[in-house]
Amino acid sequence: MSDASKQRPKWRWLRILGTTITCLAILGASAAAVVVINKTEPTAQQVNATRKSSALVDTITAERGTYSPQLVVLGTVEPAQDITLGPRISGQVVELSPEFIPGGMVSKGDLLLRIDPSDFENAVSISNSELLQKEALWEIEQARQRLAVKELEMLQDTIDDTNRGLVLREPQIASIKAEMAAAKASLERAQLDLDRTEVTAPFDAQILTQSVNIGSQVRPGDELARLIGVDEYWIMAAVPIRTLRWIQFPKTSEDGTSTEGSKVILRNTDAWGPDAQREGRVARLIGTLDQQTRLARVLITVADPLGRESDAPPLILDTLIETQIEGKEINDVIRLPRDYVRDQDTVWVMKEEQLEIRETQVVFRDAEYAYIREGIEEGEDIVTTTLATVADGVGLRKITDDEESNEETVDSDETEETTE
Hints:
The chain has about 425 residues and is α+β, with helices and mostly antiparallel strands.
């Protein structure tokens, strides 16, 4: 065996010994590091731990009072007066008013169109002539009767009662009276037909449609135009049945005192913009439910719907419009935004820096608020912040002004970093 092969086991043992010493050194250094870290670890303070466990919340103060709920529903604009105008005689249209066009505004009694009056004027002349003839015959017959009376005075002893009427021409007098009455009626009818050649507006109205022009032949039953009254419009609003008891309908008491219906605010942001509004009044309850929605229907009246006497924006027929009905006053309740009334009508109350989950009695809800009769006392703090952990006794702490400003600063810093 050579000298090189004899020296290999010796070097192998030296390597193993060196590796062992290195591992022991590493283990010793790690143990020393752990000891140092344990000795320098900070001690947790009980005060800070307790403070961090309380949730930061915003609150509002409960106020008890009298409030009027606001019922916000949609309504459809309808005309209060809506007629289809037609002629009552036959003839040719010879004249039209400049306002007799779609959108035209007319007042009561204004001439809309004229039907050719020639034939009707001729009929009036003929009837008048016939009446004059009958009146002349009446004068003649009266003269004959006066002469017969004188003759009867001379022959009164020889004329019996049966023939007395014949002598005094009573049958002739009755016949002439009947003929004269018929002539008067014929003249009145002819004059009435002549008057009907002028078609006038029955009320202050707007022309929606116009169906004839000069030269058109018309007869009874034809449609001349559609007219809408402009003094008042109706709005048909659909409301849930449960809200009817909070709506004030007009009524008259036994002593004659009248009560107006609930005030209604109307809005149409598409047509009027966000700030414009109109005012109406609840007039009556329609006695049937809407067959599709099963909602009750309430009739609202709006005076001067086209704003002719004011600067109010005009209503547009057949449009959907937002109606805000002011309900009857609810006494002795606390009003809270609906979002602060939680599941099963519970409200989160902060009392002695702890959370209390209160069951409440909600009298009514409108689109924005809930009106609470019982379960909350005036002056209590209502938690408005959404909590991750909800249970009675959870620690709460109100957000102070400094904390709010700090949160805003942090948010703004994060926004700047994100932007960068």
